[in-house]
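Consider the subject:
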Amino acid sequence: QVQLVESGGGLVQAGGSLRLSCAASGTIISINDMGWYRQAPGKQRELVAIITSGGSTNYADSVKGRLTISRDNAKKSVYLQMNNLKPEDTAVYYCNAEVREQIWTTVRVRNCWGQGTQVTVSS
């Protein structure tokens, strides 16, 4: 069973920084894209940033220049460095990964989610 475990959320003042981490565990053969999504109260979940296994990145326009996604393939981990945070960044942040896993003799690709971590930015 693949699990994604996030850490690093919290409360910060506007202009401050936080770093989110997400580690994958389980019978993982490989991980394709990894990303961060967020969901604010009353809003739909939205993509924040995504990174391929080769390191190519893509960001939501609202976070470009302030948030940076990175990954460590050896540690099966993805990170989100968040600088110059704004109150509108307040949301639950979710880690996402497309994982190739082996269950006995079966290999399958699954889209996995973490449990979410709260980020609150005060004005």
In short: The mean pLDDT is 97. The longest strand covers residues 91-103.
